[in-house]
From TrEMBL:
Role of this protein: Zinc phosphodiesterase, which displays some tRNA 3'-processing endonuclease activity. Probably involved in tRNA maturation, by removing a 3'-trailer from precursor tRNA.
Gene source species: Clostridium thermobutyricum
GO MF, one annotated term: 3'-tRNA processing endoribonuclease activity
Binding site for Zn(2+) 1: H61, H63, H149, D217
Gene behind the chain: rnz
Cofactors (names): Zn(2+)
Phylogenetic lineage: Bacteria, Bacillati, Bacillota, Clostridia, Eubacteriales
Cofactor binding mode and count: Binds 2 Zn(2+) ions.
Name under which the protein is recorded: Ribonuclease Z
Amino acid sequence: MLNICLLGCGGGMPMPFRNLSSTLFEYKGRKILLDCGEGTQVSIRMISWGFKSIDVIVISHTHGDHIVGLPGLLSTIGNSGRVDDLTIIGPKGIKEVVENLLIIAKYLPYKINILENEEEINLKLNKEKGLEVNDKEWDLKINSIECDHSSPCLGYNFYIKRDRKFNVEKAIKNNVPKLLWNKLQKENSVEFEGKIYNPNMVLGDSRRGIKVSFITDSRPVENMAEFIKESDLFICEGTYGDDKDIEKAIKNKHMTFRESSNLAEKGNVKKLLLTHFSPAMIDPKEYLENIEFPNYIIGEDRLKLSIKFEEENN
């Protein structure tokens, strides 16, 4: 199960009732943070999810409302007792920006690894050190897409792998020795008494995992619908609720509610979560009539969601 908390749903500048862009994922006790606007630390403290287990921070782009909360957060993570490496992922230019921000957080007790403009990143769950970048194996995969914004900006897909079920009947039918079952269940091939045993000899069919898509600060791009296709949750900016603000959206390279919902429809996603509201939009619910997708949620600070694996028979 993947737990999600929308820490802040504002864009541009913080408001008394709305923090800036930030979302937290929790999976098997480890965490990934998406963007880090002002107010991120406050919301994390309020939901009591903790700081030490934030292993990966993913940044969409380097505008202030998505990243200025980073130095303080990194310091707090250090003060929480973290000593294991932390990974920051972002678009072109993220390395320089993070290094400059760290001038006010120089002495951290852990190493920061920065990955810039990567199309695909594999993360493997280490029981002791959390989510780590791994070239070969993965429990969680991140893909990126270039967005259409006024600075280099990436949208992301997050895939959580679901392990195949062990099939006892299949293992017996294939004469697999019981002492090999555990290793094969972990999807490792094994050589035993001159014979190679592979995971397909004991495992059932592939099972659908969890897919979450995240697009913020962008105009709709032609290949976005395919990128977000059949996501369990599509987290998308809805900077402007009013259709009359379409010219502002085009000029500032953002989306209206109608554009975001049309994108969700084209991508055949299961659920749309709208966020990143303009400071001028006091109550997003005034513009619900402009949403052309049935299964939507209007974001609020500290809104929590959970996504479970689909129940399957195999």
